[in-house]
Specification:
three-stranded mixed beta sheet, single chain, 25% strand, alpha+beta, GMP Synthetase, Chain A, domain 3
């Protein structure tokens, strides 16, 4: 979720509609039984552990506890912070927002003609493929004019979800339905933007942001909302206004990937619709500027953990990988070696010496990008 959404939920008090634990319930029910028994017979009776009546009461306490837990869960499903699944979708319906279905990957395919001096028409829906049953189709009609050698056409995967992601330039190279005069085809950008059906975290954030879209004044969070509405593959979105009347929107994908020109074009067209963009906004959409950093460090493990060295090394490598992801999934997040150090120590290192990165302030339209990772094991050390 966005930083604003996270802060909003964290500032709210934790809510429990039922404050019971099974041991407290058992003690109360046993005490109530003993009191009623005395009132009815005039005899004091103590239900010791193992007493059949106490065991029966314990079974009833478990049933009541389970019922109370269901009541607590059901009550929480009325609150955006806790709601999930179909309950969350019903909350979304209140503000007119539903769960996004799966989205398709997009890319740019270059069509190169076989001879000069002719105009080659390329029908909308022309199919290309990298193989493996994956097909991309052009979204608009295009022509290679007489003086041109090729034309780049936006294409969308026919298979929804992540299956169409990750085909690097040149891999989509087979023309499925031949077009007269075309010598070759090849994608010029890595296909991206395909995503499975939206998860609860993304939907919850969009429901939270939905009221921002009701304003016609163009609040920043409205653009965040609409960008995420386009596809759940969209991760962080950072709108700003560098000049009067200009709205600059930078975005990345949910895994921290940088969007290519095809996806940027798709988002630009979507945000530019008259029911999304205020008339006075001059909209410019793009990827954040990348600020490179390298990781160079040496870590040490306490001698008392000698038998767990390999296990700890694996945990440290995972911690470094998670730090890299953490660093690049938020636009404007400063490069912070303290975060890296904390993760490595938490993974089991005794200490760590970090040569690079150093703390670096990242601008609001920039994002950190790792280049090389060199994490050396320095050996065992006494406490």
């Amino acid at each position: 979720m966005s930083n604003e959404s996270i802060r909003a939920f964290r500032s709210l008090p934790e809510i429990n509609f039922v404050n019971k634990d099974v041991q407290t319930m058992l003690s109360q029910m046993v005490a109530e039984y003993e009191e009623v028994y005395f009132e009815s017979t005039g005899v004091r009776k103590t239900l010791s552990p193992g007493d059949p009546v106490r065991i029966w009461i314990y079974a009833q306490a478990l049933r009541e506890y389970g019922l109370l837990q269901q009541i607590d869960y059901a009550a929480k499903q009325n609150l955006l912070r806790y709601s999930e699944g179909s309950y969350l979708e019903n909350l979304g319906a209140i503000v007119g927002e539903g769960r996004n279905g799966p989205s398709a990957a997009v890319t740019t395919v270059r069509f190169t003609k076989s001879q000069e001096g002719t105009t080659i028409p390329i029908p909308a829906g022309t199919l290309t493929t990298p193989g493996n049953g994956i097909f991309f189709e052009t979204t608009v009609y295009a022509e290679i004019e007489e003086a041109e050698e090729y034309i780049d056409v936006q294409s969308i995967c026919r298979t929804l979800g992540t299956a169409g992601n990750g085909f690097t330039p040149g891999q989509i190279s087979t023309l499925v339905n031949p077009v007269a005069g075309i010598a070759s085809v090849a994608n010029t950008t890595t296909s991206q933007g395909g995503e499975a059906a939206e998860d609860d975290v993304s939907l919850r954030e969009r429901i939270y942001l939905k009221p921002e879209s009701f304003s016609v004044a163009g609040p920043g969070d409205a653009y965040v909302f609409f960008a995420k509405q386009y596809s759940s593959a969209i991760g962080d979105v950072k709108p700003s206004s560098p000049d009067p009347g200009v709205v600059d929107i930078r975005f990345i994908l949910s895994d921290g990937s940088i969007p290519d020109s095809s996806l940027i074009t798709e988002i630009t067209n979507y945000l530019s619709a008259s029911n999304r963009r205020p008339l006075t906004d001059n909209l410019q959409v793009g990827a954040p500027d990348q600020v490179d950093y390298a990781i160079e460090l040496t870590y040490y493990i306490g001698k008392q953990n000698e038998s767990r060295v390999v296990e700890i090394q694996d945990a440290i490598n995972l911690a470094i990988s998670e730090y890299v992801t953490w660093q690049k999934i938020r636009i404007g997040r400063d490069i912070n070696p303290s975060e890296l150090s904390a993760r490595i120590v938490q993974a089991g290192a005794k200490r760590v010496e970090i040569t690079s990165p150093v703390f670096t302030v990242i601008g609001e339209t920039e994002v950190a990008k790792e280049t090389t990772i060199d994490a050396a094991y320095g050996g065992l050390e006494d406490e």
